[in-house]
Design a protein that fits this description.
3 helices, about 30% helix, 3-stranded antiparallel β-sheet, elongated, alpha+beta, about 110 residues
Length: about 110
């Protein structure tokens, strides 16, 4: 493990494609900004390895629900497949949800 000392406003790069910025630090806590490619998963460790609380949907359930909702919407209005939302067309979003759902491995930026 590489350990570095950074001051507020200083950053580091990983593989020339991921920028990690120390935004602020105070009393043992740090605010970190991360800029990475859209397809890269960035998540807090406690969220990746924790059990969902009772009554809360898992990520997999939310992805299935989102995929189902977009699919139904496209059945009603097929021309919406080419509408762009945050740099993605609705059709691309559906394909991304399909790929995440099949592999059950999240691998991108939150939608």
């Amino acid at each position: 493990m590489l350990l570095l000392t950074r001051r507020s406003g200083e950053s580091l790069w990983i593989n020339e494609e991921i920028k990690v910025l120390l935004v602020a630090s105070d009393r043992g806590s740090a605010r970190i900004g991360i800029a990475a490619p859209r397809e890269m998963l960035i998540s807090r460790t406690e969220l990746l390895f924790s059990e969902p609380e009772v009554g809360h949907a898992t990520d997999s359930q939310r992805l299935k629900s989102a995929r189902h909702a977009i699919s139904k919407l496209l059945q009603l209005k097929p021309d919406l497949a080419d509408v762009e939302v945050d740099g993605w067309t609705v059709g691309e979003l559906l394909k991304e949800l399909d790929s995440r759902n099949q592999g059950s491995q999240p691998h991108g930026t939150a939608l």
